[in-house]
Amino acid sequence: MKHPTRKGQAQMTETIAIIFIFFVLVLFGLLFYSRYQKVSLQQEAEEILATKAMEITVRTLFLPELLCTKGEAEPEENCVDMAKVEVLKERSEEDGTKYGGFFREGKRKEAYYFDLLSNSRITLQEVFPEAEEPIVLYDNAKKDWTKMEPTYFVVSLKDWEPDWPEPRYRFGYLKVEVYS
């Protein structure tokens, strides 16, 4: 029986060292890749939340319950009818809901527009000529939210009374906060 030579032992040690270094490099590569993926997924989640916030803002701007009309059902762009907002506000106060009038009766009160507006809070703030308290149009914030994406959209606020010769316009903004 032959005994292993020193040369063979050295080659075996070199091979084991090379395999060890190879696995260490593979491990570092996997760690780098997993951190890269984690950051990438976080960025993608933020982009999805921002897109969702913009979509909800656009949906809110085109809700018939808020949209101004020019008399023949032709909508005015970027305009909120304050008479409609007042009706929603009164309905919300009467029913004691947090949805600003956007709810449905059933076994339990739930947001009627949840499919459209999701977990968000929508407020309307007058800016000119006077800044008043913001009006909450919809408030269905997620209880255990981790991120919130606000979007703002400038709108005109149309107020009209039957005895006025012309409607009065004011300026404000619509604030949509989407939660995830």
What does this structure look like?
A hairpin with a 5-residue loop joins strand 3 and strand 4. It contains three helices and eight strands, in the order αββαββαββββ. The longest helix has 56 residues, at 6-61. Strands 1-2-7-8-5-6 form a six-stranded mixed beta sheet. The protein has one domain (48-179). By secondary structure, the protein is α+β, with helices and mostly antiparallel strands. Helix content is 41%, strand content 29%. The chain has helices at residues 6-61, 82-95, 114-117; strands at residues 67-69, 75-81, 103-104, 110-111, 120-128, 135-139, 148-159, 168-179. The termini are far apart.
Low-confidence stretches: 103-109
Number of individual domains: 1
Question: Could you tell me the mean pLDDT?
Answer: 82
Number of helices: 3
The strand count comes to: 8
Strand order within the widest sheet? Answer: 1-2-7-8-5-6
Largest β-sheet summary: 6 strands, mixed
List SSEs in N-to-C order.
HEEHEEHEEEE
